Amino acid sequence: MKATIKDVAREAGVSVATASNAMNNPEIVKPQTREAVLEAARRLNYVPNANGKRLRARESRTIGLFVNAMTGEFYGALADSMNQVCRAQGYELDICIVADIDSIRFRLQDHSMDGAVIFWDAVNEEAAAQMAESDCPLVFLAVNQQGAHSSGILFQSREHGRMAADYLYGLGMRRLMHVFGIAGNYDSEMRRQGFLEGLEEHGIPREEVRILEGRFERGYAYREMRKYLQEGNPLPDAVFAANDLSAIGCIAALNEQGYRVPEDISVMGCDDISLSEYITPALTTIRTQFEQTGTQAAQEVLRLIRGEAGRLMQQEGMIVVRKSCRIRKETAG
Amino acid sequence: MKATIKDVAREAGVSVATASNAMNNPEIVKPQTREAVLEAARRLNYVPNANGKRLRARESRTIGLFVNAMTGEFYGALADSMNQVCRAQGYELDICIVADIDSIRFRLQDHSMDGAVIFWDAVNEEAAAQMAESDCPLVFLAVNQQGAHSSGILFQSREHGRMAADYLYGLGMRRLMHVFGIAGNYDSEMRRQGFLEGLEEHGIPREEVRILEGRFERGYAYREMRKYLQEGNPLPDAVFAANDLSAIGCIAALNEQGYRVPEDISVMGCDDISLSEYITPALTTIRTQFEQTGTQAAQEVLRLIRGEAGRLMQQEGMIVVRKSCRIRKETAG
DNA sequence: ACAAATCATTGAAACGTTTCGCAAAAAAGG
DNA sequence: CCTTTTTTGCGAAACGTTTCAATGATTTGT
Known about the structure:
The structure is a homodimer. Chain A is elongated, with a radius of gyration of 26 Å. In chain A, strands 2-1-3-4-5-11 form a six-stranded parallel sheet, covered by helices on one side. A four-stranded parallel sheet of chain A has the order 7-6-8-9, sandwiched between helices. With about 325 residues, chain A is of the alpha/beta class. The first copy, chain A, starts with a helix and ends in a 13-residue tail after the last strand. Chain A is about 45% helix and about 15% strand. Among the domains of chain A are: about 1-40, lambda repressor-like DNA-binding domains (434 Repressor (Amino-terminal Domain), Orthogonal Bundle), CATH 1.10.260.40; about 155-290 and about 320-330, Response regulator (Rossmann fold). Chains A and B meet through α4, α5 and β2 of A and α4, α5 and β2 of B. Chain A binds a DNA duplex (30 and 30 nucleotides) through α2 and α4.
């Protein structure tokens, strides 16, 4: 039915070995025969069987990306940017949406990929270290891991928290609130910690910073903020939310209770999802540069495949100033 | 280094054939020996080589998804929902972001997938028909194609346009505007056509419907609408935009020129991206039900793999009523 | 013109599986 | 206790490649 390399060889009147060489090691076969082989392949519509090829060659020229899901802006950007790098280097990108950690372990060992990038919620330092023992080159996103064949790329979440603290303090904010993400989540914890540390350096003790739960969700943050306001608690000068979605939830609650952003209170997010640009007021936030992360991760895994040693890397962020934060005259220096 | 089935067989004191059977055809091997094999496999951390397996078994239990890119809400939802169905049926989902149509053709023939869903801009009916000649089961999204091993799933874009026309007419709108998408794009053309047809059935001739270019982009629609208003053209009763993004652009331009939505003018979108719920006013739009499409597509490709015949399917839409359209008293029946 | 060196091609083995047909062993029937 | 049937396990072939070592053909050097 479907043409194999044998058929091509027969059609071109050469041995299988020569046919293979004509296609994969063009330089060692006489131009004339090579052309004959290629022509035969074309005529027969030959497409090499990927499984035979990978089995024998002991490499798949595929790199994997393991994620929990693809819904959400980050994932698409990550995948697209990784794909671009991989393609340019002659690799396929194989995106695996995976529900349990064991299937990651399994797939890493079944020889279907030469290396992988792992961005998976429940992969912590311990799990990562264990996975890294396989000889498959691995890049972990948001995990502190570094080994012979494994690298980690950390989002500077603590640093992001600090940036927010500095920025808001610089605008004259003194009574701060933080909308927390998810307990145990690395980025969550780091953002909070960095924010509190940054404020402490400006002389604001962490006990004075009000913490609300947000769970990274718009709705949850909205409800928590509404409850907070309805209970008659004091309005802070500014809010730093653990992500844009919860910042947007806060703004909705604030507006609903008659407060204006940024006139009465400033709100700052984190992530810079595309939505943030379009809401009113446009959200001031910290951009985590998704595409750049993908590019970096792909390049890193290719580097590991080349045999270079693993390392720990950082992914920088930057403040994107829009309309949701405004200087506070009374206190600003 | 890495354990193969031979090692497992030796460790368990059985032949390779038995080892294989113990794992894949448990019923034909004595419980006692089966347990021994499984135990040996566990001890050696055995993971079957996917390439050997697929080569011999002549199936990969993998289904492919070919797309132009993963950025954009639709793709994530599509991938996640497909993944869920595939997983439940014991298949892997292999997402391929692909830059040229020939690599689709290639991948379809290299035996790395048992079937595929194709949602790729430049795959038109002609290209689809050609691809369908391969014996790989194929489901095309937004392409009119049906064959022995191939199905098409059409978005009811014309129907969506009609729904918008009916809805807006029912609210009392008589002077309508349509913000067009991209010329040549199937959904674009169909939405416009359906919208105009629908209005005609209500006695509004298509010449009276003002058409603006929107290119599916927020910024482009914004500029076109601004220009339109600044030139002193009459304000329509309602706008139906080809997608939510351009609807949002229109609203921004309208607000900027001092018009209120929906008090002065109604605006309706199409797609129901998540953003639409959060802007003010929350956008009335037509939901195209991304997840459902993915589920349907995955089920269909599995159906084709089972050997059933291809067919043509429709993907329904529904109006999501929010705040951006309001009844118009003067004319409403 | 002959040996040496280079070039082009090839047969066969190997990659890790599954599966077919057969043999051995066990169970059942008389 | 012998035959028949059923159960269990095995050897070997096959899937489609790549690649190694070897062979034969051609060119080079003297």
